[in-house]
């Protein structure tokens, strides 16, 4: 997939208050094609809250987020974004293939077929294995395979490297680099040091 | 992917899931059969009394069985993050939810419909009322699922939402119970029941068109 269309995610004056505690205030950033935004910070510093605001699950207490100039409640944003969070969104009773078919039915098809995506995340041959029989790392790779089979420009990833071994981490970093090469963009949180030499990485440190 | 494909994919997914977790189908049905078979033991085997209270027994049991099964509607999707993915879909969430509720009704409501005639005969209900009983269940149980969906969507984020759920949902179930059991009682005595059936049909149409919207809104609130 080559994303010719210029896209941008702009946040202005964002603030988030949780239980009378200001997690962040007046936060602003802009991400465009071929860029990665890495959110850093201690546990409880509001990284996940920020991601959930970017997903539209949570309203910011002030400020706004815009996708290509439009508010993110617009349907175009939900077409263009894909989210993998703490909860992987995998049904453990369904097989690997059934899980991906459901994901595909809920979104627009991307360039990568299901078989190719499974091979890409090194789950080829696991098609008919129930997801509950997969290891934690394999499950994570399955949830990331969802990003490959659907059309999307923006990936929002919450700690994508949890439960992955060193090879798995390298694999995901490679997929991320490819996604950016093709014009996509990524917003992620991670405690792991990102190794993306070819990509423009912005960092925001939440205190 | 088109909306119809997504709608049927959701139904198919939920049916496969129900098939792999059989207790979900069995529990409400088991409860329904158990309550109805216990009643004659409790009130004594007096055919006339049983016959008189049969419509009420069957409908109250159906209502409680429907409520018992509600929690499974969104619980596992909420726990494993599938609900988040559903809400992030570009398709209208209310339509996807309608698919989920329909699949849920097929799994928990339809079996009640299939076993009810047997239990009705068991309670000595006259034959002329059986058709009406089935009709009221066919019209009424989907309403229970649709109204229940709003309640579950509101409480799925709470750790102990069971009590609140029954308080929220039961009052809304009462009209269905009144019209449905009244229709069956009147049919048993040979009176016309078109009015009650029409009202039940109206409730079903109203619930079909209106309930998915608040359910979608409540689910969005629950995941935030």
TrEMBL record, chain A:
InterPro entries in alphabetical order: AAA+_ATPase, ABC_transporter-like_ATP-bd, ABC_transporter-like_CS, ABC_transptr_haem_export_CcmA, P-loop_NTPase
Gene3D superfamilies linked to this entry: P-loop containing nucleotide triphosphate hydrolases
Record carries keyword Membrane: yes
Pfam families: ABC_tran
Keywords: ATP-binding, Cytochrome c-type biogenesis, Membrane, Nucleotide-binding, Translocase, Transport
UniProt keyword Acyltransferase present: no
Domain of life (superkingdom): Bacteria
Molecular function in Gene Ontology: ATP binding; ATP hydrolysis activity; transmembrane transporter activity
Domain ABC transporter: 9-206
GO BP: cytochrome complex assembly
NCBIfam families: ccmA, PRK13538.1
UniProt-recorded name of the protein: Cytochrome c biogenesis heme-transporting ATPase CcmA
Annotated source species: Methylovulum psychrotolerans
TrEMBL record, chain B:
A cellular component annotation (GO) from this entry: plasma membrane
Originating species: Methylovulum psychrotolerans
GO biological process: cytochrome c biosynthetic process; cytochrome complex assembly
Keywords from the UniProt entry: Cell inner membrane, Cell membrane, Cytochrome c-type biogenesis, Membrane, Transmembrane, Transmembrane helix, Transport
NCBIfam families: ccmB (TIGR01190)
InterPro entries, per database record: Cyt_c_biogenesis_CcmB, Cyt_c_CcmB_bac
Coarse class of the protein's main subcellular location: membrane
Protein known as: Heme exporter protein B
Domain of life from the UniProt record: Bacteria
Entry annotated with the keyword Manganese: no
